[in-house]
Amino acid sequence: MNMKANNYDLISVGGRKKIALKEIIMLRAEVNYTYVYLTDGSRFLVSYTLKKLAKRFSEFDYFVRPNKSVLLNTKYTSSFDGLVLQISLPNGEILQNAVISRRKKPIIQQKMKELKKIDAYFLSR
C-alpha cells in the first residue's frame, strides 16, 4: 500500500489548476470528458477521459474505481452495501450512490477493509 500519499498532495486535473487530493470527492465520466466533484459542492469539467485520469490517480490507495464511469475517494464513502457505495459530502449530504461492478466487488471490499485498518491505526495514536 502506498503510504507516501497524504491529504496535502496536489494533483493537476486539467489545465494549470492544482487541487489538493483531500478536496476531490469523485470523478465521473461523461463521454470523452470527466466531471471532477469537490468537497465544497462544486464540480468542473476537464477534457480528459476517466481512463487517463484513473492512471494518474492509481498511485493513491484511497481512490478506487468501482465501475467504468466513476473514480471515488474512499474517504467520502459513507456506506458500503452489497453492490452500492454511498458517496457523501463532508457536511453529511449524500451526493450520489455508485454501483460496483460484480467483477470489482471483491477488490473494492478488500481495499475498504485495508483502509479502515489504516484509519483505525492512525486514530488510535
Automatic annotation (TrEMBL):
Domain of life according to the entry: Bacteria
HTH LytTR-type domain span: 14-114
GO molecular function: DNA binding
Protein name: HTH LytTR-type domain-containing protein
Alphabetical list of SMART domains matching this protein: LytTR
Coiled coil: none
Pfam short name (any one): LytTR
